[in-house]
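Quick illustration, no need to memorize.
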Amino acid sequence: MSVGVTENLGAAENLGVTGGVERTTLLVAAARAIETHRPDALVRDHYAEHFVRAAPGTAHWPVRPHDVPDGEADPLWGRLGRYFALRTRAFDDQLLRAVQLGARQVVLLGAGLDARAFRLDWPGDCTLYEVDRPEVFAFKQRVLDGLGTRTGEHRTARRVTVEADLRADWAGALTAAGFRPEHPTAWLADGLLLHLPGTAERELFAVVDRFSARGSNLAYEAGLGPDSAVVRDRPVHTATRERTGIDLPALLDAAPRPDTPADLTARGWSTTVHTPFEFTRHYGRGPLPEPDDALAANRWVFAVRP
């Protein structure tokens, strides 16, 4: 951990977005900020850099391409950053397709600091439910308020924040916020499951299954298991540890991962599993495979309840 990160941890803890998994939301926000200003951007998120700058522990992180001298050759802000941008684009497109097919409820599980409610075009009768911990929403709201962002509605869609810990009983909070299980829903767990114990992952999807009417869609990122010692020492991980203080492999649950795609299929979902590199080829931009790849164990799963 760098000296700057260590000095600022105490102050940033008051913002509810430091330590462990929470700091990774700022890491992804910085990646989206850099991507936003690329001429060939996969995604544009003009809110991202403001979140990064507002947290004392990350105010010095790069948010523009010219802040990264080595460009895409940089293992952290280049390769890993482009991975986060690619994931964001793929999941954005999945959500918008689900809405085009008739879903009018969107549930963002572990919404973090993404600004999908504001940066994407939604139908006027669509409601977005963001589920996350109250500390995350407090920080997010403070930044949005400072930007003068209208947070209740944007582009005529409605945004509803649901304060809940996804390792506990979040279903009651979601329905209390107005969610209707009998209506088709587009669900997203973006960068969440890699940090949950296997039991919590199973319980989360049991709720999603119970609350999903026919025509619902689900997209999420999953991991095949803990990285090997060789992979943990790859530049993507070492650069992230040295420059941000985030040890990504240490945040992953060490127990074997559940086969959630098989569980969903058994529950009647139509499920497809993809590598990130398939989307690199699809969009023409993004990371390509390399030996002992730190990204190779990640899978992006898309499911539909017919």
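The chain has one domain: 3-304.
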